[in-house]
Amino acid sequence: MQQIFSIFNLIPGYLVFLALVLVVLPTIVAIALRFCLYRHLKSLAKKARRLLGGVKSESTPKMITKLEQRLADSNLNLDQLNTAAVIEGEYSHETFYFLGLSLNCDFVDNLSRILPNLLLSFGLLGTFLGITFNLSSLSQTITQVDINDVRNLVEELNQPLQGMGVAFTTSLVAIACSSLLTVLNLFWNTNIVKASLLSSVEDYIDNIFLPRIQPVTSLESAISQFSRD
């Protein structure tokens, strides 16, 4: 236990600050954001599947409500409508709430994917800063200590050398946090939930909503095509 405390005493304050601000805190925030995003998309996908079963409630997702209003109020040629593109465009504006903040789903999803690599970069930055400052301290120690006094020289060099070794702890922390985020990104896989959501919404729009608002569109198109032939 005493050795552990002695190791912590060797860690420079700036390394602790960098590790907390650039690695640990972003990891905690990213885990919370990823979980909230996954839960939000899973809830939307569940509600979309209920619509496919004919169950429409007051909790219909705003995304689907906006799609219905857009398609009902527009004069689009439904036979040439690219439903997938319209749904993707509407999803790009989808948001969820986190600590009272409205956050874009795509932005949070992309942030969760690139953050593990950013954490590794921040960890390396802390390591190189630690090595740089410790080398500077080592250089000053060598110039100030009497080389003939071997015992005193060894004692003076001990702390800077140990400090350089401890500087690598920032990289270890960053690697651990990056690995944790990567595993959680796989466990809370938003790609699968998003694909399920968009597929259910497209199925509902194409096969339930559009035939309901214009039930004879396809028939009229076929008759028109037959008359032209």
Helix content: over 70%
Number of helical regions: 9
Total strand count, please?
2
Poorly predicted tracts of residues: none
Report on the architecture of this protein.
The chain is mainly alpha-helical and 229 residues long. It has helices at 2-10, 13-52, 62-73, 83-91, 105-144, 150-167, 169-187, 190-213, 217-228; strands at 95-98, 101-104. A two-stranded antiparallel ribbon has the order 1-2. It is rod-shaped. The N and C termini lie far apart (90 Å). The model has no long low-confidence stretch (mean pLDDT 78).
Feature tags:
single chain, 9 helices, mainly alpha, 229 residues
Outline of this structure?
The protein is mainly α. 80% of the residues lie in helices and 3% in strands.
What is the element layout, followed by pairings?
Elements: H1 2-10, H2 13-52, H3 62-73, H4 83-91, E1 95-98, E2 101-104, H5 105-144, H6 150-167, H7 169-187, H8 190-213, H9 217-228
Antiparallel strand pairs: 1-2
Helix pairs in contact: 2-5, 2-7, 2-8, 3-8, 4-8, 5-6, 5-7
